[in-house]
Amino acid sequence: MSSIRPVVIAGPSGVGKGTLIAKLMEEFKNIFGFSVSHTTRDPRPGEEDGVHYNFTTRDSMEGEIKEGKFIEFADVHGNFYGTSKAAVDKVADAGKICILDIDVQGVRSVKAAEMIPTPMFIFIKPPSMDLLEQRLRGRGTETEEKVQKRLKGAKAELDYADDNGGANFDSIIVNDDLERAYEAVKDALKENIGVAEHMWNKRVENA
Description:
Elements: E1 7-10, H1 17-27, E2 32-34, E3 38-39, E4 54-55, H2 58-66, E5 70-76, E6 79-84, H3 85-93, E7 97-102, H4 104-113, E8 120-125, H5 129-139, H6 144-162, E9 171-174, H7 178-192, H8 197-202
Parallel strand pairs: 1-7, 1-8, 2-7, 3-4, 8-9
Antiparallel strand pairs: 3-6, 5-6
Helix pairs in contact: 5-6
EC number: 2.7.4.8
GO molecular function: ATP binding; GMP kinase activity
GO cellular component, one term: cytosol
């Protein structure tokens, strides 16, 4: 399956990327593997090291970046986020299609890296900025300053997604209803990544 395109799922913080990826991993765990990103931010309640993120220090991550160990990385709201080559290789070594959960800065880096095969890029949009703000505030984990930073970043990400008539992404999906958005993600994947019908239909039977 190494010849099948990796999948990049991008979108602003609070749009529901993580939830959609979790559903995908549960239903198709024999097909997809999640590339666990590194971050220097503190864990949120319920987050586990090595599961949701590889939590690390800024000094450690800066050192590994200088050593060329990351495919992409970005400074987002004062914290580093990045995808290590080792995390992607781990998924590929398991014979699964790699899913990356990154922001638009990461998308630019992955495109510049010219990965082979070329990844499929999916962008998840909120139905509106007002609803995105509600979701961010509903977390109860962000200060007002952080909420405003995330909203400013979201506007920039949405502008990038809309550039050139949406040509920066293979598929742009509005998450106005979780189940509807999830079905749209599955349809886009089935159409674009080249998974054979018999493999797709196996789902979790052989997981």
